[in-house]
């Protein structure tokens, strides 16, 4: 019996070791894919996308928001034009001197002159359902703005999947917010990222919160990105409509 027990223990130890090695290999692969994507976006001279955000909540409600992003590194120009389901609009735009935000409906405009301009993005997460902190934080890598792709934890490779006909790595992990004063972790959610295998561009991002029984709580952003496109200057011009 002692010999059988020793053999069983040896087999269990070997199996456990292989399992841990496999997990480590998966995590390393996920981290390397994420880092390659971060490096790519941080090096882009220009970028543009059209995107859709599906906000699924309650028992069966889905809101569909849309936005476009245009970015040029030199000279610096940026605009994210967010159109909310139901007609609301929120715009973030930047030029070499400052960043600005404008809220449709109220007509309020805020200006963020250099060098204190990062809050134009960090304070716009709620109004854009997270869009301001997804791709823009990758484009402005040196500013270390945070965002989902920079802060995802325990990332694991979960195979591949096609998104709009593009083969993508599917990576999932967890996200949370932490109170600086107490270190308390809040707003914990599952995050899944789809990154195109050929281009390393982000094709889809999903955040899922633990809902009440019988309900849903999920945000899914799907992108049609372009790396280093030629963007006409007119794309960056924004004049607030008269209220």
Molecular structure report:
The chain has 243 residues and is α+β, with helices and mostly antiparallel strands. It has a single domain, classed as Lipoprotein localisation LolA/LolB/LppX (outer membrane lipoprotein receptor (LolB), chain A), CATH 2.50.20. It has four helices and eleven strands; from the N terminus they run H-E-E-E-E-E-E-H-H-H-E-E-E-E-E.
* Helix and strand composition category: alpha+beta
Q: Which term fits the overall shape?
A: globular
What's the overall average pLDDT, rounded?
89
* Portion of residues within helices: 10-25%
Give the low-pLDDT segments.
10-27
Report the radius of gyration as a whole number of Å: 21 Å
- Count of DSSP E strands? 11
Task: Report the sheet-strand fraction.
Answer: 35-45%
Question: What's the quick description here?
Answer:
The chain has about 240 residues and is an alpha+beta fold. Helices cover about 25% and strands about 45% of the residues. The chain has an eleven-stranded antiparallel β-sheet with strand order 6-5-4-3-2-1-11-10-9-8-7.
Secondary structure layout:
Elements: H1 2-43, E1 46-58, E2 61-72, E3 77-83, E4 89-94, E5 98-103, E6 108-113, H2 119-122, H3 135-139, H4 148-151, E7 153-163, E8 166-178, E9 185-196, E10 202-208, E11 216-227
Antiparallel strand pairs: 1-2, 1-11, 2-3, 3-4, 4-5, 5-6, 7-8, 8-9, 9-10, 10-11
């Amino acid at each position: 019996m002692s010999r059988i027990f020793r053999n069983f223990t040896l087999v269990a130890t070997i199996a456990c070791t292989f399992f841990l090695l496999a997990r480590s290999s998966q995590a390393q692969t996920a981290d390397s894919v994420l880092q390659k994507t971060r490096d790519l976006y941080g090096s882009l001279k220009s970028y543009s996308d059209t995107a859709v955000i599906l906000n699924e909540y309650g028992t069966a409600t889905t809101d569909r928001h849309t936005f476009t992003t245009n970015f040029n590194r030199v000279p610096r120009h940026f605009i994210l034009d967010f159109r909310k389901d139901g007609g609301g609009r929120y715009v973030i735009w930047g030029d070499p001197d400052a960043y600005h935000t404008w809220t449709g409906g109220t007509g309020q405009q805020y200006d963020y002159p250099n060098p204190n301009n990062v809050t134009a993005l960090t304070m716009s997460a709620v109004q854009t359902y997270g869009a301001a902190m997804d791709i823009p934080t990758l484009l402005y890598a040196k500013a270390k703005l945070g965002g989902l792709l920079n802060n995802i934890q325990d990332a694991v490779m979960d195979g591949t999947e096609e998104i709009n006909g593009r083969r993508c790595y599917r990576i999932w992990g967890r996200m949370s917010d932490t109170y600086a004063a107490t270190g308390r972790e809040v707003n914990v959610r599952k995050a899944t990222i789809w990154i195109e295998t050929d281009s390393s561009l982000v094709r889809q991002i999903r955040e899922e919160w633990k809902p009440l029984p019988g309900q849903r709580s999920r945000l899914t952003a799907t992108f049609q990105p372009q790396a280093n496109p030629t963007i006409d200057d007119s794309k960056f011009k924004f004049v607030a409509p008269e209220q």
